[in-house]
Amino acid sequence: MIKKYLFLLILYLGNQVYAQQNGFKIPDTLRSKDYDYLFEQIKALEEGSAQQSLYLQSFLHKAKAENNKEEIINGYKNYVHHSPENLKLVYADSMIYTAKKSMDNALIGSAYLTKGIVYYAKKKHNYALDNYLIANSFISKTNDNYLTYKVKYNIAHIKYYLGFYDEAVSLFRECIDYFKEENDIAYLNSLHSLGLCYNRIGNYGLCTQINEKGIQEGKRLATDEMKDYFIHSEGINQYFENNYASAIKKLNYTLPALLKNKDFANEAVAYFYIGKSYWDLNKPLMALPYFIKVDHIFVSKGYIRPDLRENYELLINYYKSKNNPKNQLLYIGKLLRADSILHNNFKYLSGRIHKEYDTKKLLSEKIKIENLLQNRKYNDFIFTGVIALLFFSLLFIAYRHIRNKNIYRQKFEELMKKSEATTKVEVKNRSNGIDEINQDTVASVLKQLEKFEKDKKFLEKELTAAKLTAAFDSNAKYLSKIIYHYRGKKFVDYINDLKVDHLIKLMKEDKMLRNYTNKALAEEVGFSSTQRFATAFYSKTGMPTSYFIEELKKADS
């Protein structure tokens, strides 16, 4: 029923547009003007002004009068870029309709690509990807390199959004090489996106290099359109480098441009990392207004991404520390809604998103606080409930502690019994396209992997699939398939497991290492962060490092 009404609304809006165009006459002063002139005027005039509307209508009317389908599509595209948000998809559908009548694959692909970009701007990533893939199916039948790389660029953004950073890096590099000679803005956008990927994979130094290069390239090309975005990227990067004052300064600098561009997504990201910087500087009262601004954007635009999830964890913790259950409950509800959206949008990654507050815990805590608020005036009842809750909480904690100890003990014993088995485990019956690779290439890569493992090159910090591919003078796709087939793991798990296995061997032999902190242990075997080390160790062994070290010490006593 909703779809039916939505269709009727779009049809009505489309008829309104048609009626306006049908009754329009190009002014005499514009009849002899070509499409380039009209297009330049559209770009130069104030958004939403009557003059701009005149040129928009003149462009489209001229194209229809001449039955020039390519320019009709461009006319609708002009409206997509310069019309209110509620009409953009209507004009995008008009583009697709006209393009299909032309039977031109390039025009059809370009129209679907434009619709995907509209959806991406609205942060409706699933719909955006659907349209990108349709666009690609048409564009792949043409020899139009520009459109091909435009599709690659937009699909790379979806991969970045989903967290497939290595794949996104590869695509953005291809786009940089192509757009450098073809389109200045697309080139700078690709550079900016590559820097974002490097930040997300923890290569902060390379992210800074890309941001500096982007600003310099903007100067060389005489355009400052992307300058604020490179500074925005570097502001986030500075936060991860623990340079909080620099992060605050850079992100505040970019806010006027983001507000002018109505870029609510990057605005939310800026607010969050400014707030986080103040929070990490132990200034929660200065952080709080920025966290609330992130929430306002979530409420008004529905925009959330995995790293912004922490915004609600911090708000919950803050109000918990202030003994304010009403606000605590408010933000628990919003975190649950954020989790629901993230789960739907990130179904491929939902198991990989670290959650300090898992859904069951949130629901349980939500119910407890609701009951607390509802019965607050009944002090005796509250007292009894709190005592009971405390008793059962302690009982549950004791049960979980004993259960975890037993599980960890079993895992430890299994680990100690294992021989120093090699990681070279062939995975049979695994169809991942390995047969398509030349056997000489497979043999060469395997030989290099053996030397890589023997020489312990996996201990290198910031080691990525791209770096290893370059070192092997190989192909990233081939390397990934060979590792998966012959080591039975994806690249990140393969490297992490090598590091953990090596560390376990070192700790068995060197008692001094058992006194190291997690941070020192992470640095010892080349992990880029303590959190990544702790996660990888637990994933490999089934127990935290503290328990493993404690049991090692007991075994030697």
Q: Would you give an account of this structure?
A:
Keywords: Coiled coil, DNA-binding, Membrane, Signal, Transmembrane, Transmembrane helix. The chain has 557 residues and is mainly α. Among the domains are: 375-417; 444-556, Arc Repressor Mutant, subunit A. The chain is 75% helix and 0% strand. It contains 26 helices and no strands. It has helices at residues 2-22, 35-44, 50-65, 69-82, 85-102, 105-121, 125-139, 145-162, 165-179, 184-200, 204-220, 227-240, 244-260, 264-280, 284-301, 310-321, 325-345, 359-374, 379-417, 439-454, 465-472, 476-487, 491-509, 518-524, 530-541, 545-556. The protein is globular and about 100 Å long. Mean pLDDT is 80; it is low at 1-21, 348-358 and 419-429.
Overall strand count? 0
Mean pLDDT figure = 80
Stated plainly, the CATH topology of the domain at 444-556 is called Arc Repressor Mutant, subunit A
How does CATH name the architecture of the domain at 444-556? Orthogonal Bundle
CATH superfamily annotation of the domain at 444-556: Homeodomain-like
Terminal-residue CA separation: 73 Å
Question: What best-fitting shape do the alpha-carbon axes yield?
Answer: globular
Residue stretches low in confidence (pLDDT < 50, at least 5 long) are 1-21, 348-358, 419-429
Structural class: mainly alpha
The ordered string of helix (H) and strand (E) elements is HHHHHHHHHHHHHHHHHHHHHHHHHH
Largest sheet: none
The number of helical segments is 26
